[in-house]
From TrEMBL:
Stated family: Belongs to the glycosyltransferase 15 family.
Name assigned to this protein: Alpha 1,2-mannosyltransferase
Organism encoding this protein: Exophiala viscosa
TM annotation in the entry: 12-34
Keywords, in A-Z order: Glycosyltransferase, Membrane, Transferase, Transmembrane, Transmembrane helix
Cellular-component GO terms for this entry: Golgi apparatus; membrane
Gene3D superfamilies: Spore Coat Polysaccharide Biosynthesis Protein SpsA, Chain A
GO terms assigned for molecular function: alpha-1,2-mannosyltransferase activity
Chain positions covered by the region annotation Disordered: 44-88
InterPro entries per UniProt: Glyco_trans_15 (IPR002685), Nucleotide-diphossugar_trans (IPR029044)
Bias type Polar residues, positions: 44-57
GO biological process: cell wall mannoprotein biosynthetic process; protein N-linked glycosylation; protein O-linked glycosylation
Amino acid sequence: MAAGSGRILRYILFAVFGTAIIYFISTSSIPSYAQQQIPSTGKFTWDRTSTQTSDGKPNSAHDALGSEASSSPASGVPAASNSQSAAPLNGITTTESALLSPPAPGERVNATFVTLARNSDLWEIARSIRQVEDRFNRNYNYDWVFLNDKPFDETFKKVTSALASGKTHYGEIPTEQWSFPSWIDQKKAEAVREDMRRRKIIYGDSISYRHMCRFESGFFFRHPLMLQFEYYWRVEPSVELFCDIHQDPFRVMKDNNKKYSFVLSLYEYVETIPTLWDSTKKFMKAHPEHLAPDNSLAFLSDDGGETYNKCHFWSNFEVGNLDWLRSKAYIDFFESLDKDGGFFYERWGDAPVHSIAASLLLNKSEIHFFNEIAYYHIPFTHCPTGDDVRLKLRCHCNPADNFDWKGYSCTSRYFDLNQLAKPEGWMDQV
Ligand SMILES: Nc1nc2c(ncn2[C@@H]2O[C@H](COP(=O)(O)OP(=O)(O)O)[C@@H](O)[C@H]2O)c(=O)[nH]1
Ligand SMILES: *[C@@H]1O[C@H](CO)[C@@H](O)[C@H](O)[C@H]1NC(C)=O
Ligand SMILES: *[C@@H]1O[C@H](CO)[C@@H](O)[C@H](O)[C@H]1NC(C)=O
Ligand SMILES: [Mg+2]
């Protein structure tokens, strides 16, 4: 007994002492410049930022399809509840983030980040948002659209709104865009999944992965929340950015008339798309009017279009033009593929679908490679070739990890096809 209460006493003393130390550290470590910046009105800088994040433009489109018109808990009252809950934490106040990281000059493009995610992806997408913000968006404050086949929960909205510097929007996906179309034979689709499960094909037995790929192929750009934008940048959970981004990628796209862009390219896993090229050829025959005169067919095929070489741009990173995806050419392509059923009878990914579309429907000059955006999505890294670039942009990727010039990348092909000079030093990385 005596020994037990002695231990309890020690715990209490330790806790009190520890709390005192933490209090001392937290109060004494506020830099003096930060204290000077605390507005005397008692308003904190995050009151302003959370006002921005509470919801998107009050637009009737937000109410459609169960998308959350107001991301703040007090629905319909923009600017309200988020800031109230953000009471100053025990003497820790935000420094004036706008002063530390002032808005970049120049006009913003009509653009947004877009993320498809589940509530359970919260902490993985939080990492991605933080990196995108630190490396770029904290000076640009572009909006961020989150889409989900289920309603986002309050925690997801609270955390992501706090991390994003622009307005955040949360939307639900209509059921018909996340389910089997009427013409799909469910028994046949089930047999395919069972077969792919036995053959251990990645995501081969997953229904939700197929809905995801179909949604990213044909619907995300038509969601009501996306209609108000012209350009998008897709961000997935657990991606990394290794360099500062000094040039607004949306601006690069717009000013140079680019419609689609990539940082990594590779060969697709053929088991997932055995008949995708047959469907593509059918489309090309039916719609020759949609093929761009100066297209990149040679990126996709080594024999003038007879067979597909499996090259595709990796679509977990994309900066692209939404109006192009909403064009008749793209929609006709998607609908033609969708009717053929390969999203369910095989496991067509949105990466080859977007890539084939970009290569056939766009002129070569409309597809852009962002060398200066250093990026990682498991298991591949794009680390910019060129020592100068990496130092100037304060990159922290290891150039030896760069995938661009390795044998399984298609990026060399893209350079050759477009007669672009490869960055100096590429030969050392082959
Ligand atoms: N809402 C929702 N998002 C999903 C689902 N499955 C995947 N995603 C999202 O779709 C994207 C691709 O999924 P991911 O698991 O990263 O696939 P991978 O990159 O091909 O391995 C990510 O942004 C995921 O958060 C799902 O069932 N529901
Ligand atoms: C942004 O682009 C969308 C789609 O093209 C368009 O409908 C909208 O009017 C544009 N908004 C502004 C402010 O230009
Ligand atoms: C591609 O370029 C040609 C001229 O070479 C032009 O007529 C055509 O409109 C362009 N197509 C697209 C999709 O931009
Ligand atoms: Mg992913």
